Amino acid sequence: MKKLKTSSAQLVAESRARIEEIETPDLIAMLDDPNVCVVDIRDVRERQRLGYIPGAFHAPRGMVEFWVDPESPYFKDIFGEDRKFVFHCASGWRSAITVAALNDMGFDAAHLREGFSTWEAQGGPVERADAPKK
User: Fold this and answer.
1) Which three-class secondary structure state does DSSP give residue 102?
2) Helices (DSSP H) in the chain: which residue ranges?
């Protein structure tokens, strides 16, 4: 097996060392602030299965860099707003790497350190989609 120059764990650690990390209780306290936008980068199936933070904007991980770039044909207007953007995934790994890349692009963002994995247990509100119709 070929050894990688940088492991995924290393990439996450290096990303975390240079980005803003927000603790779960702090983000819970920010949810009513209209100047804060929570961005969920998890797969749509994760959101359906586990629920999501009420009001979170869904931006699939594979499109984030394109959606925040005003010069991209995929740009989403929400990312042009003057707000604090806090990205999250399930465990904080994908969002750490994502936010590091976005910061490198010049987009100011933070991420939820523990991700959605401990959100509900720490008192965070969760919305769940209706069960799919048969």
Assistant:
1) helix
2) 8-16, 24-30, 44-50, 64-68, 93-105
**Closest of 3, 5, 15 to residue 109, by C-alpha:** 15
How many whole angstroms separate alpha carbon 27 and alpha carbon 36?
Answer: 9
Walk me through the domains of the chain, giving residue ranges and CATH numbers.
Answer: 20-118 (3.40.250.10)
In the structure encoding, which two tokens stand for residue 117, read together?
A: 């994995």
Q: What is the pLDDT of residues 76-120, one digit of tens each?
A: 999 999 999 999 999 999 999 999 999 999 999 999 999 999 999
Say how far apart CA 91 and CA 87 lie, in whole Å. 11
36, containing H or E segment: strand 36-40
